[in-house]
């Protein structure tokens, strides 16, 4: 029985370390996404930062990944497209079971609620990716740099 008390804190530290490592790896994946309009990455424009990624354990095999990004201006017309790029990149690259939630940082966009709904709606995301013009833009944005 005494070992159970010792096991839990170690387990909690391990889970925290794993979540932090996953957050860092996810940050590395999204920082190289290119802005749809400018010749910069989302990291260079400070749309995504190290602190915008949160990973929570749902159970032993599943994780909740939350991304909060900050558009460059409160009326950014490409915020939905940026959210779509984040979603596509992570859906393709994350090697573990996950639920993905992407949000605009609170108070940083004039229509953040509407955009948050769009980029977290599977049907809308699928429909957007069926559009060849949008798909081409997304593919260019998520393309890994040489």
Automatic annotation (TrEMBL):
Q: Which residues form a coiled coil?
A: none
Which biological process terms from the Gene Ontology are attached to this UniProt entry? chromosome segregation; protein maturation
Transmembrane domains' residue ranges: none
Q: Which domain of life is it from?
A: Eukaryota
Q: Which residues form the MIP18 family-like domain?
A: 24-89
Which keywords does this Swiss-Prot/TrEMBL entry list? Chromosome partition
InterPro entries attached here? Answer: FSCA_dom_sf, MIP18, MIP18-like
Q: What family does the database annotate?
A: Belongs to the MIP18 family.
Subunit and partners: Monomer and homodimer. Component of the CIA complex. Interacts with CIAO1. Interacts with IREB2. Interacts with APAF1.
Check the record and name the PANTHER family matching this protein.
CYTOSOLIC IRON-SULFUR ASSEMBLY COMPONENT 2A (PTHR12377:SF2), CYTOSOLIC IRON-SULFUR ASSEMBLY COMPONENT 2B-RELATED (PTHR12377)
Q: How is this protein named in the record?
A: Cytosolic iron-sulfur assembly component 2A
Q: What gene name is listed for this protein? A: CIAO2A
């Amino acid at each position: 029985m005494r070992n159970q008390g010792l096991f839990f804190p170690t387990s909690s530290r391990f889970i925290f370390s794993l979540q932090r490592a996953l957050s860092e790896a996810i940050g590395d994946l999204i920082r190289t996404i290119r802005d749809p309009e400018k010749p910069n990455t989302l990291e260079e424009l400070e749309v995504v930062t190290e602190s915008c990624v949160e990973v929570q354990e749902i159970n032993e095999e599943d994780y909740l990944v939350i991304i909060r990004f900050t558009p460059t201006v409160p009326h950014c017309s490409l915020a939905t497209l940026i959210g779509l790029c984040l979603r596509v990149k992570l859906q393709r690259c994350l090697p573990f079971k996950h639920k993905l939630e992407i949000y605009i940082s609170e108070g940083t966009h004039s229509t953040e609620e509407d955009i948050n709904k769009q980029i977290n709606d599977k049907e809308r995301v699928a429909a957007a990716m069926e559009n060849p013009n949008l798909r081409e833009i997304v593919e260019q944005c998520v393309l890994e740099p040489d």
